[in-house]
Design a protein that fits this description.
The protein is an all-alpha fold. The protein has 5 helices and no strands.
């Protein structure tokens, strides 16, 4: 029977008052980055699809295959957001400090940037399954811009996160 009293084991007692976990914000950012890519670039602008390098994009069957691949991609990004939510709940249950906005959103931006860099390097350059602008022949300049944007998000997000972390540390030091 639930009594409304939260009990903590010795492992979680060691985390009480510690800074929030970075996992939640990073996972939210990875998922958010995937959603922005999939919704904006795949669906709204229709610049590319998950496997749009395929010649089959010129057929209904090819479009159906790409729609399925895009949907599976969205399921994966949904799981990243769900994992971020679970990480946040675990952190709260451990008694960690609540993140301030710069701690959390810095990590969200960094996670989004990491998504862009990894997706840009792996899917655009290494595997070549699509490019940012497959609708105009996939020029390298768009792919490079995507990577630069991802790097800037990662660096800027990390700096913002560090600012939030230092603020949390000052607050706990002055108790």
């Amino acid at each position: 029977m639930y009594t409304g009293v939260m009990t903590q084991d010795s492992a979680s007692l060691a985390t009480v008052g510690k800074p929030p976990s970075k996992a939640s914000g990073l996972l939210y950012g990875l998922g958010f980055g995937g959603f922005v890519d999939g919704i904006v670039l795949h669906q709204v602008l229709q610049w590319h699809h998950m496997i749009s390098h395929e010649e089959s994009m010129k057929t209904v069957a090819g479009l159906e295959m790409n729609t399925l691949a895009d949907g599976l991609f969205h399921v994966a990004t949904l799981f990243l957001v769900l994992a971020g939510s679970i990480a946040a709940i675990v952190s709260w249950r451990q008694g960690r400090l609540a993140p301030n906005w710069s701690f959390h959103f810095g990590l969200v931006f960094a996670g989004w940037g990491i998504f862009n860099v990894v997706e840009g390097l792996v899917n655009h350059q290494i595997l070549g399954i699509h490019h940012v602008r497959d609708d105009i022949g996939g020029p390298l300049s768009w792919d490079i811009g995507f990577l630069i944007f991802g790097a800037l998000l990662t660096i800027g997000g990390w700096l913002l996160h560090q600012q939030g972390l230092h603020s949390l540390q000052r607050q706990t030091a002055h108790g």
